[in-house]
Fold:
Amino acid sequence: MDILNALVAFLNYVFVPGLAYGSQLALGALGLTLVFGILRFSNFAHGDTMAFGTMWVILITWWFQSMGITAGPLPTALLALPFGIAITAAFVLATDRAVYKFYRDKKAASIILVIVSTGVMFITNGLTRIIIGPQEQNFADGARFVISAQGFKDATGLSEALVIKSTTAITVITAAICVAVLFWFLNKTRTGKSMRAFSDNEDLALLSGINPERVVMVTWIIASALAVIAGTLYGLDKSFRPFIYFQLLLPIAASAVVGGLGNPLGAIAGGFIIAFSEVFVTYAWKKVVGYLVVLDLEPTTLLQLLSTDYKFAVSFTILIIVLLFRPTGIFKGK
Amino acid sequence: MKKLLLATAASALMVGAASAEDVKIGILIGFTGPIESLTGHMANAAEEAMNEVNASGKALNGWNFVSDRGDSTCGDSAAAVSAAERLVTADGVKGIMGADCSGATGAVLQNVARPNGMVMISPSATSPALSTAEDDGLFFRTAPSDAREGEVMADVLMEHGVKSIALTYTNNDYGKGLAEAIASSFTAKGGVVTINASHEDGKADYSAEVASLAAAGGDLLVVAGYLDQGGKGIIQASLDSGAFSKFGLPGGMVGDSLPAAIGPALNGSYGQVAQSDSAGAAALIEMGKNNTPAWDGTSPYSMESYDAAALIMLAMQAANSTDPKVYKDKVMEVANAPGEKIGPGELGKAMELIAAGKDIDYEGGSAVELIGPGESAGRYREFEIKDGKYETVKFR
Structure:
């Protein structure tokens, strides 16, 4: 029995990666769910908006680096983030003006808007690939670890190590700040309240004098800011490749649906549910269990429910189960 | 590209005339994809062999060998097949130096080479499965089978005192074949393989894969993957999470881009790559340095590429025909004893000897000796990474 080592192994291989991945999914799902709540369609282009925004952050990061501007121990990308958000918001607003507004004015059914957003997705994806190319890009700099494997082992004398990468720490902290600011905005400011009113009952909101175009504009700006932040954090913590972001749409959409579409709190819960399920089901528990049981009972198999190749299947399965038994999501969305 | 354009322009000019002069040889390797950092050297090496023969002027019937590049992508078999289809049917190549990765090579062999009767000499496809594949005598390789690399790797690990390994492979024909070969040889020598798991290339994050590998444990992690792809991701994630600190690196993980990406943490890892220590190898490395464009003979499979292209041309000369169905029977003859030994840079002399009716034994840069169904017997360079460099330990 070695509870400490078991705990450290669990934290290192399950909890910390799940927490980082969950934060990234939650930020992505928040953007998706906001657009759904206010514009009333599932935005398929959200994953590629993330890729598009992250691409600009990368390009600006490289430009900063070439001029010798860095953020010390923090990644330079954090400095480039506001510029990336500005460019992406402008791009998304232009898309709204050129594409979505036409269908909104015609009061098109939401399924049509979904198909339209698929078209926008392909174009955004193509643009990203043309500008930065389809291959992997690394743009993380600054200090790599908050706690490194060797440092932890030396300090504690345990045989297992708890590693915290600085990008993981930044991800979790940034996500917490973003969520706090977003909820403050939605609950305390006039614009935020008008957005919630618009989401709850469009006709009543219009009657009370809320400007719909303004609400739509603010929604797009917030959604693109969340998308770029989520994309940049994911790229810093893992790696950037346009196709990966396209694939990321599935777990993000699953998070939003599981939590309840249109419900910001649900999006955050959904993100963590999906992330931890993926990690729990595909982790080989042999090591953790091995530390907990007496020696001769040590498991001979890996105690792994599913091979890691089936990660995406987990989000699909949860999505289907939730839709079957609780179609509005855990937190009563729409 | 320029060459290709020139060749196309030249052949367009000669429409109608008896254009028996230009003989196109396809170079079908992954200029994009998981081994793209190696293929530039490979193509330049093959083209140097062609230029060498052309410059000597000893080819029969005034043949002028022209290179025709195609992108196999390494990973995407369908793309490799369509590229090969273009080379054979549209461009009319008379032989193919390629393909590179085992999966793509097998697909091109079955779907393009056999139906069209085209000779393929691969410089780098190493899957054991290709030894037994139906090939109508059209397929050869200047790279050894991974069955051999598995034995060599097991020896290397044993000599380092490794008792147990975790093993991960890229989920394709090459990775699977090599992982099986390593696992069976290592187990036969008394070692323990704690886990033998695949990984997919092109993912953003390998922490879940590494978590399983770490759970199984082992003295070191053998990564039978690609250096520009999942293999790099696995190593990075293992180091980040502190799961493994030493790695066993087979041939697909050898290239300067890996230590450059990982940094000093990779020092101390070791492995082996198909490469020869023959006198020819040293000479060919020099030739590569002085060539324009220069290429690196120590980069994996570049010498094999030179040799593969040379074998195609020598076999054509020996058969006095550029018809693949005719010269395919001569490939083994020019590659093996008896005959005068031919090193790199002596292609002109070899062409002359063949024209004079003498036997040759092509050695080239990789000490070519084709065994069994036409594959290299294989010499391996054991290396250890020191200060970000692949330092040679010895040849075996």
Summary: Chain A is about 75% helix and 0% strand.
